[in-house]
Amino acid sequence: MATTARRRARPLVDGPVPKHVQLREILETAARDELGADAPIGSERALMSRYAVSRATVREAIGQLVRDGVLYRVHGKGTFVAAARVDSQLHLASFTEEMRRRGLEPTTRVVDVALTSPSKRAAAELGLGRDDRVWRLERLRIAAGEPMALELGWFPERLLPGLDDHDLSASIYTLFAQSYDLVVDSAQQSVWAESADGRQAELLGVAGGAPLLAFRRTSSAGYVAVEHNLSWYRGDRYQVHMSLDRGQRLDQSLTQGGRRP
């Protein structure tokens, strides 16, 4: 930020716009237009000297940008520019479709696939009996070369025989439609916040305890449930956009608003 800061450096003056707001705008513009992800913004002392402001002013401006996800702090090292988050609207689409719509190249790493008995929750959601088996599929979803989400899904074997013979690193919904004549056209989904455990943190490339957005989805083709899925998205790289309508039914609003089931 040294070149940018020197070019734009000027003492901030009192006026109708508070100094911390002025400094926030300067730092936000630099982060958005001139600096890359993970670039340092400079020390508190340097910013105090450069803009002739107090430490409290610097901390207030930086604190607001950290809360908004524009910057992030690393203890003992400083403050850095956060990577832009993927802004997703709640709608029915595969990860592959969603990332391509955002201009990001999606890739997938299959962590594990096995034929097994379903969990109690998966069996109930998929309408399965005691003797039914499911494909348990765990995948790491990647966008523009960076881990974005970890997915754990259960899929009925009777509907999807030989699922493990297919390329499971591509879009599952496209595979269902093309190979099994099952077009996913509806889903029920809930979202809540969690902290990354050790394994999730390692796979997603984040620190243990980092914030995650957790999604639970049951998807159907017609009246047949074909997927029960848990996904954990990185909270620093993903956010959800919702459009609200006063005419929306209460139960619908509560589900979309993120009540954990």
C-alpha Rg (nearest Å)? 23 Å
CATH topology of the largest domain: Chorismate lyase
Alpha carbon gap, first and last residue: 45 Å
**Succession of helices and strands:** HHHHEEEHEHEEHEHEEEH
Structural class: alpha+beta
Strand coverage percent: 25-35%
Helical fraction: 25-40%
CATH architecture of the largest domain: 3-Layer(aba) Sandwich
Strand adjacency order, main sheet: 4-5-6-9-8-7
Tally of discrete structural domains: 2
Class of the largest domain, according to the CATH hierarchy?
Alpha Beta
Oligomer: single chain
Q: What's the CATH H-level superfamily name of the largest domain?
A: Chorismate lyase-like
How many strand elements?
10
Regions with little confidence, pLDDT below 50 for 5+ residues = 1-7, 86-92, 252-261
> Roughly what is the average pLDDT, rounded to an integer?
81
Describe the structure in your own words:
- With 261 residues, the chain is α+β, with helices and mostly antiparallel strands.
- It has two domains: 2-81, Winged helix-like DNA-binding domain superfamily/Winged helix DNA-binding domain (Arc Repressor Mutant, subunit A), CATH 1.10.10.10; 86-256, Chorismate lyase (3-Layer(aba) Sandwich), CATH 3.40.1410.10.
- The protein has helices at residues 2-8, 19-33, 44-51, 55-67, 95-101, 120-126, 172-180, 198-204, 250-256; strands at residues 71-74, 78-81, 86-89, 106-116, 134-143, 146-156, 186-195, 211-221, 224-234, 238-241.
- It has a six-stranded antiparallel beta sheet. It has a two-stranded antiparallel sheet with strand order 1-2.
- Strand 1 and strand 2 (78-81) form a beta hairpin.
- Helix 3 crosses helix 4 (55-67).
- The longest helix is centred in the N-terminal third of the chain and has 15 residues, at 19-33.
- The two termini are 45 Å apart.
- The relative contact order is 0.12.
- The model is unreliable at 1-7, 86-92 and 252-261 (pLDDT under 50).
